[in-house]
Design a protein that fits this description.
The complex is a heterodimer of chains A (200) and B (103). With 200 residues, chain A is mostly helical. Chain A has a single domain, classed as Cytochrome c oxidase, subunit III, four-helix bundle (Four Helix Bundle (Hemerythrin (Met), subunit A)). In chain A, 86% of the residues lie in helices and 0% in strands. Chain A contains 6 helices and no strands. The radius of gyration of chain A is 20 Å and the shape is elongated. In chain A, 40% of the residues are buried. Chain B has 103 residues and is mainly alpha-helical. Chain B has 2 domains: 68 residues; 34 residues. Chain B is built from 3 helices and no strands. In chain B, helix 1 runs antiparallel to helix 2. Chain B is flat and about 55 Å long. Classes of the chains: A mainly alpha (200), B mainly alpha (103). Chains A and B meet through helix 1, helix 3 and helix 6 of A and helix 1, helix 2 and helix 3 of B.
Chain lengths: 200, 103
């Protein structure tokens, strides 16, 4: 009986450990949201500091932004499918949906890089005006997050393949899912504050 | 966060969230693209749909609710919300007041 009790206690300890990690990651996401909040505030303050350079209307394309939004929103759904497969214990389905999510994430970053390089080539780089500095800081920070998230997804596909859906792997996947869904929320702010008002 | 019951961890819940999010994205894009209303009204629509969509994402994808989400997670979320409000609100208030005074 004492062995059973100890085993039971150990399971509880394990459970509490992963719950602590998920809570810690949640607190990290909340602090990360503060970084984005200040980047948003900076952008709005600088919104008309063109310094005789191009304005948002000259630079932004609604169709391009809609494409990026669609990729990211769909990737949040496919990560949801991966989470469901994880809860059902289907490792191969987890890897399949993670791969789809990663492709969508990489596609998003590719579209963003195309936009950035086009702007820089047209002489509208971050050094052109205060507005553009703030724009590249805000959107670029989000892009770096998506890039790191895609890298994280790749690492987790490898971990699921090698280790299977063990408790630590499932905990990491849960935290990565929180990260990915959080990035989509930040993107709602970006198209609502930067792109849509920009083309009006 | 690690609620054991299904809650919003179901296929239909994820799909519902996705469809609502798609609609809440299509509305502001359509308004901005077509220019049916004044800039002011369009901005209001963009702001409202964005706020609703953030809540939809929190509920359907991050599984936040009053029943199963741990109290400390909700507290951290609320605290972050207060800080964001103070920092964005305070920055814009001070900087736009400065612009106004300098004119």
């Amino acid at each position: 009986m004492s062995v059973e009790a100890t085993a039971h206690g150990a399971v509880h300890g394990e459970q509490a450990k992963y719950e602590d990690r998920e809570f810690g990651f949640w607190v990290y996401l909340m602090t990360d949201s503060l970084i984005f909040a200040l980047a948003f505030a900076t952008y709005v303050v600088m919104i008309q500091n063109y310094s005789d350079g191009p304005t948002q209307k000259d630079l932004f394309s609604l169709g391009h932004t809609a494409g990026e939004t669609f990729l990211l929103l769909t990737s949040t759904l496919t990560f949801g499918f991966a989470s469901l497969a994880m809860r059902a214990g289907q490792a191969s389905r987890v890897m399949l949906w993670l791969a789809v999510t990663m492709i969508l994430g990489v596609g998003f970053v590719g579209m963003e890089l195309a936009e950035f390089s086009g702007m820089i080539a047209a002489g509208a780089g971050p050094d052109r005006s205060g507005m553009l500095t703030a724009f590249f800081t805000l959107v670029g920070t989000h892009g770096v997050h998506v890039t790191l998230g895609s890298l994280g997804i790749f690492v987790m596909i490898c971990q699921v393949a090698v280790k299977g859906l063990t408790r630590p792997v499932r905990s990491r996947l849960t935290r990565l899912a929180m990260f990915w869904h959080f990035l989509d929320i930040v993107w709602i702010g970006i198209f609502s504050v930067v792109y849509l008002p920009g083309i009006l | 966060m690690s609620n054991s019951n299904a809650g919003t961890h179901t296929l239909s819940s994820y799909l519902t969230g996705y469809v609502i999010a798609l609609v809440l994205t299509a509305i502001p894009f359509a308004f901005a693209w077509a220019g049916w209303f004044s800039v002011r009204t369009t901005l209001l629509v963009v702001a409202l749909t964005a706020i609703v969509q953030v809540v939809v994402h929190l509920v359907y994808f991050l599984h936040i609710n009053y029943r199963t989400t741990a109290k400390e997670n909700l507290l951290a979320l609320a605290f972050a919300g207060v800080l964001i409000f103070l920092m964005i609100g305070g920055t814009l208030w001070i900087m736009f007041d400065l612009h106004y005074q300098m004119m």
